[in-house]
Inverse folding.
DNA sequence: GAATGATCATGC
DNA sequence: GCATGATCATTC
């Protein structure tokens, strides 16, 4: 078995690829792909995501679009514990901190990215050696009306605060399902934003993240439906 | 123990 | 610096 060299032809091709790696360990998949296995992720935080991208035939790169543009599908690996619950929040995308003309929830990057996601659960407990961690069964998900509504509410609330110059008052506690948190190489990275008096200020870049309770519900529902 | 805020690698 | 891939580690 070897990683594909071309993107999946269609959705069933993508799902078939996902099924083919389910149950395999990171070590097995890395050896077959000819890539090195880190001992831990302290300096290799995106390693698992890139391993799965490779095996599903996603185009590597830093495009602000979906992983499979032709299929309209975004890929997300999600680390889970032994009970199948998420160990980490899920990064969605960067947040514009300056007003975007004509911006709206409907046109937002959050909505675009989350319109259809292939969730690939992976074993993520730190006590498990990286090479022994296994890939789980992928879940193809599109938000329900209720989920869409929650996301829209949070996006609107957070976006309103940003536009109103309240960025420095926003913490991860805002939002029911979506949070805003720093997203940068380190604390010295700064970008432009709107200050309290409407003036231009410098602040740390922020990104949207999905709360664990939200992704847990997605995985649980998918698992429940398979029973 | 969990969550928040901070950080790491990479390409351009 | 922006954007991808996220997890780390200090704080609560």
């Amino acid at each position: 078995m070897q990683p594909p060299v071309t993107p999946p032809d269609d959705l069933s091709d993508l799902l078939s690829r996902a099924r083919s790696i389910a149950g395999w360990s990171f070590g097995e998949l890395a050896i077959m792909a000819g890539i090195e296995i880190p001992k831990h992720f302290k300096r290799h935080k995106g390693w698992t995501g890139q391993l799965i991208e490779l095996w599903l035939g996603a185009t590597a790169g830093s495009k602000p679009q979906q992983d499979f543009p032709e299929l309209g599908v975004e890929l997300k690996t999600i680390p889970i514990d032994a009970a199948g619950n998420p160990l980490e929040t899920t990064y969605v995308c960067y947040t514009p901190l300056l007003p975007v003309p004509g911006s709206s929830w409907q046109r937002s990057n959050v909505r675009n990215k989350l319109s259809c996601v292939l969730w690939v659960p992976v074993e993520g407990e730190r006590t498990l050696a990286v090479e022994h961690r296994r890939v789980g069964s992928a879940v193809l998900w599109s938000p329900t009306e209720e989920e869409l509504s929650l996301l829209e509410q949070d996006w609107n609330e957070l976006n309103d605060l940003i536009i109103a110059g309240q960025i420095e008052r926003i913490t991860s506690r805002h939002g029911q399902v979506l949070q805003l948190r720093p997203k940068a190489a380190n604390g010295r990275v700064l970008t432009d934003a709107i200050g309290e008096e409407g003036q231009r200020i410098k602040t740390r870049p922020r990104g949207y993240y999905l709360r664990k309770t939200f992704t847990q519900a997605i995985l649980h529902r998918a698992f429940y439906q398979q029973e």
User: Anything to note?
Assistant: Residues 41-47, 50, 60-62, 89, 171-173, 179, 181-187, 204, 212 of chain A lie near DNA strand B (CB under 10 Å from a C1'). The helical segments of chain A are 11-21, 26-33, 47-56, 109-114, 145-163, 212-226. Residues 78 and 121 of chain A are 5 Å apart (CA to CA).
